[in-house]
Design a protein that fits this description.
The protein has about 375 residues and is an alpha/beta fold. The protein has helices at about 1-30, 80-85, 115-130, 140-150, 175-180, 190, 200-205, 205-215, 240, 255-265, 270-275, 280-285, 315-320, 340-345, 345-360, and strands spanning about 40-50, 50-60, 65-70, 90-95, 135-140, 155-160, 295-300, 325-335.
């Protein structure tokens, strides 16, 4: 009797272990791995450019739109666009970029240079069995988008860049320019390039602090900053901005918690490594200095985005037309800041949709 009970218990335990093991294998395969917080969007892992990347996707058919996020962001930055364009009949994909979320995070800083990052975008297309895609990027994702189209022009049918314009490879390294401009004063890009992992150590110690202070609108109220001395020696970044007083109307507490949770798990080093390649990227792209972008191109930004520094539509059009032979439009959305696709999703989606209709890339 005891033996029978023991055997039955052992058999059930083996079954349970097998089920757990098979669930683990299932979770590691190219199928949905964790529930998505966005209805209609699912996750899976793919192999891209030698990396294991998690992608968020929606829509099974139609022209492919590939979204590249910036820093400190995740696939979730594109939640409004993924739903809108999937419902419009497009196939949409937003990966956790290299170093972010649940995608692989190489140790070597050089593996975050622009050649690797552009290769990741092409690798996503290869993994999906797609010859071409509409390339869309925001912030650092815009830098990746511009360069992906420059380096692999045959793989992209159109380009939509947000926040970060591109006027061609500068004659001087941007790192040299920033060092001359800021000297011993604090500038976040120079801070990210300091040795010893100082920047990510600060952000890893307070993910909510850094993200909540960045994810604000231009008019969002803040508390007084605790660091007012411009000298780098006075401290890092979090204390310089001023803690937010409430959330902007485009960001819920659930949104903020989700993004913060991604960095609590993944850490900030991968994203900061992108900044550590500004010098290297300038050095390894000399061959692109005279290269032009021929595919139809659209630029979108908030009119009050600090990245464009108050530049007008005409100024931006003039700068980008030097490298984009088919720049269709520059859309500046009034009163909107840096997080344009989240702050103004309806206006952003409409501008994208109008552009894709104009160039006849429609489902």
């Amino acid at each position: 009797m005891v033996l029978a009970i023991y055997c039955r218990y052992f058999a059930l335990k083996v079954v349970a272990i097998c089920l757990l093991f098979s669930t683990f294998i299932y979770a590691q395969g190219n199928t949905m791995i964790t529930p998505s917080p966005v209805d209609g969007v699912t996750f899976r892992f793919i192999e891209s450019n030698g990396l294991r990347m998690r992608i968020a996707e929606a829509g099974d058919t139609g022209p492919l739109i590939l979204f590249a996020h910036g820093w400190p962001e995740s696939w979730y930055s594109w939640r409004h666009q993924l739903k809108f364009f999937a419902e419009a009949g497009y196939r949409v994909v937003a990966p956790d970029m290299r170093g972010y979320g649940e995608s692989d995070k190489p140790i070597d800083v050089d593996e975050y240079d622009i050649i690797h990052l552009a290769g990741d975008m092409v690798g996503v297309l290869d993994a999906l069995g797609e010859e071409t895609a509409i390339m869309v990027g925001h912030d650092w994702g815009a830098i990746v988008a511009w360069n992906s189209v420059l380096i692999h022009p045959e793989r992209f049918s159109a380009l939509i860049a947000m926040s970060v314009p591109y006027g061609g490879r500068p004659p001087q390294s941007p790192m040299a320019g920033w060092q001359e401009q800021f000297g011993d004063n604090f500038y976040y890009i120079l801070y990210h390039n300091e040795a010893g992992g100082i920047a990510e150590a600060e952000y890893d110690s307070d993910p909510m602090g850094i993200i909540s202070q960045l994810y604000l609108s231009p008019t969002s109220p803040r508390q007084q900053a605790t660091i007012t001395d411009p000298a780098r020696s006075a401290g890092g970044w979090i204390g310089r901005m001023g803690a937010p007083i409430g959330l902007p109307d485009w960001l819920t507490q659930e949104d903020l918690n989700y993004v913060v949770g991604q960095f609590e798990t993944a850490g900030f080093r991968g994203g900061v490594n992108y900044y550590r390649n500004f010098q290297r990227n300038w050095e390894i792209t000399e061959h692109l200095a005279a290269t032009k972008i021929d595919v139809p191109t659209l630029f979108i930004a908030g009119e009050r985005d600090v990245v464009i520094g108050g530049a007008s539509k005409d100024q931006l059009n003039g700068a980008m037309s030097r490298v984009a032979n088919d720049l269709r439009d520059v859309v500046l959305i009034p009163e909107i800041g840096h997080w344009v696709q989240q702050e103004a999703p309806e206006e952003t989606n409409q501008a994208m949709s109008d552009f894709l209709t104009e160039i006849n890339i429609v489902p």
